[in-house]
Amino acid sequence: MSIEEYGFEIHSSFLDNDLINAIITEIEALDSDYPRHGIRNAEKKLTAVKNLVESDLLLDKAKRYLPGIPEVVRVIIFDKTPDKNWLVTWHQDKTISISDKKDIEGWGPWTLKDGVHHVQPELNVLGKMVTFRIHLDDANESNGCLKVIPKSQNLGILSKNEQDRVVAESEEYICSVKSGDLLVMRPLLLHSSSKGSEPSHRRIIHVEYSSFQLPMGLGWT
Questions:
Q1: Nearest to 66 by CA among 127, 25, 18, 110
Q2: CATH class as words, domain 3-92+128-210
Q3: Which residues form the signal peptide (predicted)?
Q4: pLDDT digit string, tens, across residues 61-84
Q5: CB of 183 within 8 A of CB of 1?
Q6: Is the distance from CB of 182 to CB of 58 less than 8 angstroms?
Q7: Domain ranges (residues) in the chain
Q8: 130-176 confidence digits (pLDDT tens)
């Protein structure tokens, strides 16, 4: 599978066990009442994650998929567990997180999540982005791994009805991966995940990079 044709690709054994264990240890050290199933702005809360997303290992990888210098847009850690075992319906990642809110023609709507401004930009912005999903645990159908519709990234920004039609007419791909594997995907690739039938830790570092030059006065978070 190549990202140019299919919108995603999987790289085995991308992250070594020592780094995986260091990140998991830092996650586990968070206060017991901290919502570990969804840690937004994770690079601002976990030193090991900050070091990883700003490392040459990831930045050099991101350069292979972007036309300019990659910058970190958004970092989230997701973890499905028996207590937090959710369904994600088919969708595209159509929003970005930026430093400030500003009226820009063709951008909107705006939302605020964890104190950070999010907005749906124009299509050309999303075309200069790439998403890395770094797996800290094995992920398969039993614990709710990602499913994708290959080649759907080429269809542009889709309405809900258009998404439903594409899914109904297409064959999904189940992204079963091992701890340490990297899934690279384009934001507009249709994707979803089911509830785990045998839920266990399914920790993923979701990292978005962009080489788009934001309008004056705005910056990536």
A1: 127
A2: mainly beta
A3: none
A4: 999 999 999 999 999 999 998 888
A5: no
A6: no
A7: 3-92+128-210
A8: 999 999 999 999 999 999 999 999 999 999 999 999 999 999 999 99
